[in-house]
Amino acid sequence: MLAAILIIICGACVITCSSQDDDPVISPTDDSSQFVTLSEAVPDAILEIRYYGTYNFVGSRIDGYEEPTALLTKQAADSLKKVSDDVMKQGYRLKIYDAYRPQKGVDHFVRWAADLSDTKMKQYFYPDLDKSVLFEQEYIMEKSGHTRGSTVDLTLFDMKTEKELDMGGTFDWFGPESHPDFCGNPETGEYTGDNSKSPATPKRSITAEQFAHRMILRRAMLAHGFKPLDTEWWHFTLKDEPFPDTYFTFPVKQLK
């Protein structure tokens, strides 16, 4: 009963309080003809599709992820190839956590968030939050920009060290520590060290080097036509996305 009430209440909040990147969309379709497989369009990118595995905030494979691959609209993939070429010159490769996400996957997130008893991944992704606030604070929503096919979650892989670049926090961390302006100004690239937004005691922080690493990714993405999200350093959407009023329902698997 509680879960049902939560979905009804939070569903209303989603419609009226959506974020800058996740505006309500109205047209579902399972047409994948305008999408490409990212490993073919951006062959230098490394894939670590978190929602195909179990290391994610839910702790299980997410509905709709049938193969460990990544899909994007042709336009977004073309722009991401330019980003890849850019960062390769700097000694990095792109590492992709998620790209197109079917509506079925978003629905799975909503069901999980409504089940307040399921907290097995809390210590890894939201230790500072009570699960009951995930809807209210818009960590979980009924619609996602990912379902429009031109949004990607990613980080940088250092070719010299052969490790992910240290961003000072994990992908899908629920908290202000994931915000691009945490401990610095993303518009100027200035590190301030201000960790006052962190709810942890003692407060969490990131170093100047970790903030600088976030800015390398951000600058490359913005330079090639993507826009950032103000709550997730890893999340970018193509500015001129081709399907701003459409969400897609086909599963994540190799395109034929």
Features:
6 helices, about 260 residues, two-stranded parallel sheet, alpha+beta, six-stranded mixed β-sheet
Overview of the structural elements:
The strands form 4 sheets. Strands 3, 5, 6, 7, 10 and 11 form a 6-stranded mixed β-sheet that branches. A two-stranded parallel sheet has the order 1-12. The chain has a two-stranded antiparallel ribbon with strand order 2-4. It is globular and about 50 Å long. Helix content is 26%, strand content 18%. Strand 6 (151-158) and strand 7 (163-164) form a beta hairpin. The longest helix is centred in the N-terminal third of the chain and has 16 residues, at 74-89. The protein has helices at residues 2-16, 38-41, 74-89, 103-114, 122-125, 208-223; strands at residues 27-29, 35-37, 46-47, 71-73, 92-98, 151-158, 163-164, 184-185, 190-191, 226-229, 232-238, 246-248. The N and C termini lie far apart (42 Å). The chain has 256 residues and is α+β, with helices and mostly antiparallel strands. It is built from 6 helices and 12 strands.
